[in-house]
Fold each of these.
Amino acid sequence: MELARRHAVYCRRDIARMMVALRVEFSAREHPVGDAVRAQRRELLERVGRLIAAGRRDGSIAPGPPATIVARAFMSAVEGVVIALAGRIGDDEQLARRVAVGLLSPARSD
């Protein structure tokens, strides 16, 4: 949950907005800048995946799809929230945490 909150805070910085813009601009073509951005993204997703796997081992994160898939969903959802709530300081952190809770908590049957 703290990672989601801190990512919301981080995304307020100019460098984070630049990374998002570069990721969009270079996503579908080979270019040294795009390669570097993709490498950074891969590293982040690997770290998040390791955190999810560790949480599953200690029982603090519910079992479910592979940690690599959950890491992608987690980062995409958190980034979507903070992009949609740009300029809403506090709301972005709170809702990023809620997204994290939803993705990492046990599934409920409705």
Amino acid sequence: MYRGINYLKKGYQHRTDIVEDEKGDLVADSHSILSSWRNHFSQLLNTYGVNDVRQTEIQIAEQLVPEPTAFELGMAIEELKRRISPGSDQIPAELIEAGVE
């Protein structure tokens, strides 16, 4: 019912379904569009190179953000708002401020 009402309120809006296939050609008929999506997702989801996940080598990236200095931590603690509800860690700002040293 809501979908019908929204359609009537918006009126006719021209909609074109055009998709690029593997060759880069534009296809507009529904059968070609469905086969194009089927091919895309079968190539994306059906990988044949990895037999065992444990055998793959995991690369650990370098840390992008350096560790904060003691001065930066002190400044962040000073900027905490007092007398508000604690966040997801359930630690109030007053307790953090009391344990700075």
